[in-house]
Amino acid sequence: MRPVAIHVLMVNFHQSTLCAASIRALLQNNYPALAFEGISLHIHWIDNEAALHDPVRESLALQLKELVQTEHQEMLHWHLHCFEQNLGFGRACQKIFEQLPAEDCLLLLNPDTKLEGLGLMVKALLRAGDRVAGVGPQSFWDEAFEFFLPPTPLIDASFITSEAMAQSLPSFAHHRSRQFRKAAIELWQASQLTPVAALSGACALLRIDALKRCGGLFDPAYFMYWEDSDLMMRLNRNGYTLYIEPAARLIHAYTHHPAKSAMIEAGRKIYGQRWDIAPWWDAAHWPKRSGPSLMASLVVPIGTDLMIDAPDQTGTILWEFSLSADFVPSIGRFARDFQLPWSLLSGVASVSCFVRRISPARDDCWAITIADSSTALHLP
Questions:
Q1: DSSP string of 37-91, one letter each residue
Q2: What is the DSSP letter of 309?
Q3: Per-residue model confidence as pLDDT tens digits over 47-96
Q4: What is the mean pLDDT of the chain?
Q5: The pLDDT value given to residue 353
């Protein structure tokens, strides 16, 4: 295998502790094996609204310096990029990307992630051929690797149309859910390199030369959110292929909060106009169905794990957890019973969430309501 340099982009915006934990996990899980294979790591700490002195950042830099002095001095490099203003995620990354050599690779990595198996991703990418632009890991929500995160879709006109049709037609929503579940299970149970339509921007190993041929890393027009979807569309339109290496594993502590909604909506409008799919998103063309699907309700007191027993079931069944009543996309867990720790549930407790149990004999759904203990006790 030829000498390889990987440039890790870590964007910090007042989250130094989280960013540092992700970098430390990256080094602990991957650095010794990478150095042995002759793969060098360039850690790019990109600070938006950077503090003049950041004890967490400085402590991490010192740790890396000490690590370099003890072994593999030429295999680990620290790069600090400080911006006085908040440039946004996409613009800050693009500024650094423009300085990187075309023959190297780039690793996108969210602050709320922990990656193991980067060396496997590198080998898969280099062996796959020049028309393969990137490789991602199998992604999980939890540190026990029990909750599979959903496949990342390519957001094109076909995807938007099917999403809108599902809002109007219950039968089509059911069909779409089954199609998603089939593709998700194939990925979750994969044991070898698997082609996918798109990779998550939370963690993706990408060829820099392929990105440069497709207009760069991120379009600076996206302040935050949708920049990775735009990249995936450009790679797709230029004929590149993407893969998941299931032997590499990522923990992504995904959360969702209504405060994100304004930035998500702003990015969505830019994306719709950029790819000429804005009309397909017009809700007037796709009236929502008259009422919600029949679904049991389950109230979970604040601070409590979400638990659903399946006493009539034997063996392992599939549970889906979703923020959509149509269960597209869904997080998957293979188990007899369902237990979601409050540590995970709390990250999505401010929005609607739903659970589905899929087995040969049953297909049951629950709408989850988070309430304080006093409220929960008085519900019928």
A1: TTEEEEEEEEEET--S--HHHHHHHHHHHHHHHHS-GGGEEEEEEEESS---HHH
A2: -
A3: 998 888 899 999 999 988 888 776 666 789 999 999 999 999 999 999 99
A4: 89
A5: 92
Return the pLDDT at 113. Answer: 97
**pLDDT higher for 130 or 183?**
183
Burial class (CB in 10 A: 0-12, 13-18, 19+), 316: exposed
Q: Say if residues 105 and 122 touch (Cβ distance below 8 Å).
A: yes
Picking from 125, 150, 149, the residue whose alpha carbon sits closest to that of residue 135 is 125
Per-residue CA distances from 340 to 138, 141, 319, 324, 333 (Å): 20, 11, 11, 17, 10
b/e per residue 261-271 (b: at least 16 CB within 10 A): eebeeebbebb
Q: Annotate 127-185 with DSSP letters as a single string.
A: HH-TTEEEEEEEEESSTTS-SBPPPPPP-SHHHHHHHHHHHH-HHHHHHHHHHHHHHHH
Cis omega before residue 329 (within 30°)?
yes
Cβ atoms of 8 and 43 closer than 8 Å: yes
Nearest to 374 by CA among 302, 308, 307, 305: 302
Residues 149-168, mean pLDDT to the nearest whole number: 89
The Cα–Cα gap between 122 and 34 comes to 9
Scanning the structure block, which residue is given the tokens 């149509």? 326
58: CB partners within 8 A, 6+ apart: none
Rounded to whole angstroms, what are the CA distances from 268 to 38, 186, 273, 280, 294?
Answer: 41, 29, 9, 12, 30
Distance CA 300, CA 369 (A): 6
